[in-house]
Amino acid sequence: MDIRGIVKKLIKKHKTTCPFDLAKKLKIKVVFVNLGKTVLGFYTKHNKVPVITINENADSMQQIFICFHEIGHHVLHKDINTPFLSKFTLFSTSKIEIEAHTFALEFLFFKKEIITEEDLGLYGVPKQLALLKKFES
Fold it and tell me: At 50, which helix (H) or strand (E)?
């Protein structure tokens, strides 16, 4: 899957690298709710309307990463319900999550060749995810 190519097309078509603007242009409703301390966000559909739920307790920079990650699910995995898969089946969602992480990283660091630990820390992204894109410590 050419995730970088998909990201390039979305940026060109919608003329934005803001996840909240992109969500609006993709007709995805974004809501902020208290999801406690363990859940950062999730993507669902309610009556066929795509919805991204983001933990209001996450800091604003982390919310940007979360929103891009969940848009990744919308774009790359439109008909896959990952919460259902992980709770009710033996299907591993790790590949799907890695693709959504990659999507988010491509958007966040679209114009950067090298991602530093400082870049990742700004968005609350675990440095292990940098392995999905070029990384320099």
Answer: strand 49-55
Query: What is the CB neighbour count within 10 angstroms for residue 33?
Result: 12
Distance CA 110, CA 57 (A): 26
Q: Quick check: 70 and 40 in contact, CB under 8 A?
A: no
CA distance linking residue 92 with residue 105, whole number of Å? 22
Number of other CB atoms surrounding residue 106 within 10 Å = 21
Rounded to the nearest 10 degrees, the angle between the axes of helix 3-14 and helix 94-108 is 50
Q: What is the pTM of this model?
A: 0.83
CA distance 122 to 23: 21
Q: How confident is the model at residue 21 (pLDDT cuts 50, 70, 90)?
A: very high
